[in-house]
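Here's what a typical entry looks like (Cap-specific mRNA (nucleoside-2'-O-)-methyltransferase 1):
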Amino acid sequence: MRRARTRANPYEMIRGVFFLNRAAMKMANMDFVFDRMFTNPLDSSGKPLLKESDIDLLYFADVCAGPGGFSE
């Protein structure tokens, strides 16, 4: 089973890296693919929604109320 999973998805070896699980790694990848829409959101005119002093902070809402990558 593990061999089939590794062959089907070569990135399986990355695992969760510094996250608790792989789902959080997938969310970080989506953030990168969609031009940092979660970590550096922009308004409709392309201006940053966060102030310069808030750049290091990531605001989120835990809508799932449970453990795992989705809540990470």
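The chain has one domain: 2-54.

More examples are in the samples folder.
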